[in-house]
Amino acid sequence: MKRAFAYAALGGALCCAAISSEGRAADAACATDNAAVPPGANTSSASAPFYIDTRGLDLKTQAPTRDPANPDYPRATELADRAVPSTGARGNFIIGPTHPVSPDTMHHDGVPAGRVVSFTMTSNDSVIYRPGMVRDDANGCRNAAIFSAHTAPGDPSGMIVTSSHPGQWTRAVDVYVPAGHVPRNAPFIVFGDGGPAGFFNEHQFFTTLDNLIHQHKLPPMVAIGIGAGGQDAQGSERGREYDAVNGLYAEWVEHEVLPRVEQTAHVKLTHDPDGRATMGISSSGVAAFTMAWFHPEWYHRVLAYSPTMVNQQWPHDSALPGGAWEYHDDWPGPAHAPQAVDGLHITAATGGTGVPLIANAPRKPIRYWFETGDRDLFYPAAALADGMHDWVLANEHTARVLAAADYRYQFVFARNAAHVDKPTLAQTLPEALEWVWAGYSSTGR
């Protein structure tokens, strides 16, 4: 049975075209990720500022390959090749290097397909994200302003981006509604980098939901894929929304997106935080965690691939100058003054009870599944020799502090896997979803 799509108000550009150059193919004139130790980095003194840990790195690969035996990583259970952790297990696991596609991610005859309703949102209609943030990238090259940026004198964490300014965004929102009976107060999962122009493979995800709901491994749930605001990283609308360590993105979803979802898809979404999940990849992955961290009254369940638990927040805020790095580790540099962008109001981060955030806050009711690949991102911008742009190290440290605080989490280190690795996602997604939703019951709620 083919999936039925219903399109509502889907006119003009589907996602971000007004401000993003992501659709343009890279050519020889465009710079690419650095993927190496930045020039002048501190790789020798762990007690000095901005130390970059190179232990266990094979620098001959692109990106460098990490050895999970790095002594700075928490201990993990290594599984047999092709195996994934069970849906009842907690803690740290190593999988790979072979990543077979799970049958539950593929279409099967006889499994009813949910419908998908789509609509667009624009910055002109927003209260929270109006105007948007636009970064001018030279020659139309993706992230050109990032790859050519400099940092503040004596502070390799302080990227200086001068080409960002107010602008407009348009994005798509896709709403999956499962086949058959949908509860009046439906559980749901909301994910970033959605939409036709997003990084996430919505077809694969929605098919997985079809299968798992049909097998009664997941409750009948709504899934909401929200397109990114445009571009990527520091100085972009996508970076402004996803990499900020505050509750603003969750508040935008709650007050501006979910009412449109209910109106357009004719569903009633639950207000029970145990029936609400967030999901994302890369920066939208850390945004998924941030949504639950700052608003646990709205979200208890989180799933992320290659989450950007690093120093990507921009502009810098003096409360949390290390951005998401400060979920798990101290800021390694000097005091940092806030930055401002002309014509845009930037909401300040809030440090809560102290930093690192996870270790210094009362344990929150968050259930977190996350993954990183052994060839995940490593200092993609050469100027940022700040000790806070190793995706694997950041996620290993996140696992360490979650374990120390007795959080319910499952962390997967995937061998032979790149950043947001598609084979790894196709192998692990069904079990990850089951793990995230374990224990959910709508009875009596």
From TrEMBL:
Keyword field contains Signal: yes
Pfam families in the cross-refs: Esterase (PF00756)
InterPro entries named in the record: AB_hydrolase_fold, Esterase-like, Mycobacterial_A85_antigen
Signal keyword on record: yes
Keywords noted in UniProt: Signal
Domain of life: Bacteria
Residues in the signal sequence: 1-25
Protein name listed in UniProt: Esterase family protein
Organism, as annotated: Lichenicoccus roseus
Top-level taxonomy: Bacteria, Pseudomonadati, Pseudomonadota, Alphaproteobacteria, Acetobacterales
